[in-house]
Amino acid sequence: MSKEFLRARRPEHKQQRREAILAAARELALTSGVRNVSLGGVAAAVGLAKSNLARYFATREEIYLELAAQEFHDWETAVLERIAAASSPDGVFDALVETLEERPLFCDLLSHSSTTLEHNVTVEAARAFKLRTAEALAKVSSAVARARPDLTGEEAAELVAAAAGFAALLYPAANPPPVMAKLYAEDPVIAALCIEFAPTAKRMLRALAAGLPTLREGRD
């Protein structure tokens, strides 16, 4: 364990420590999955005792909420670039889904966000996460609304929220754990239950985009 690491006092040094912790947590999650990473595992990866790790993050959930916020920002950047380069309005669906498919950690974090990661954090950490998430979603929604003038701003926001929701639900199912992957490989009948993420998510988003305008008159 590095004594110099433990003795960080200046703000810039503490920020470096936070970044080291986040980098270690990211690597562990990519290797083992978010659900399998413990606070002790992160502490060991950066050479800290769990009690010292609390100087930077109160819980493992706060670590992964911070990573989720970073991933939202990265996704926002990627989607905006992809939409700007799209050759047709339908490119919005490719932009939303393909950028999610390219980010397995983000999809993993989304699948755990509301079910576990938001359940053991401080109000301050939760507020910071939600504000950063809202900012990213708002920017993506604005870009979708510009690319799809057939949708209102509210409908564009619903489409973007649905894309993130589909990632949370569909991506884990499309990328099963080893036991399920083995079962699918051995039994073609059961294998039919394993969906393909990108085609399924794009089809669902297309259906949603087509249906939302038909509901306008029925809204309160």
From TrEMBL:
Pfam families: TetR_C_34, TetR_N. Keywords: DNA-binding. PROSITE patterns: HTH_TETR_2. One of its GO terms (molecular function) is DNA-binding transcription factor activity. It comes from the Bacteria. SUPFAM superfamilies: Homeodomain-like (SSF46689). InterPro entries: Homeodomain-like_sf, HTH-type_TetR-like_transc_reg, HTH_TetR, TetR_C_34. Transmembrane segments: none annotated. Residues 38-57 bind DNA. Residues 15-75 form the HTH tetR-type domain. This is TetR family transcriptional regulator. It comes from Amycolatopsis thermoflava.
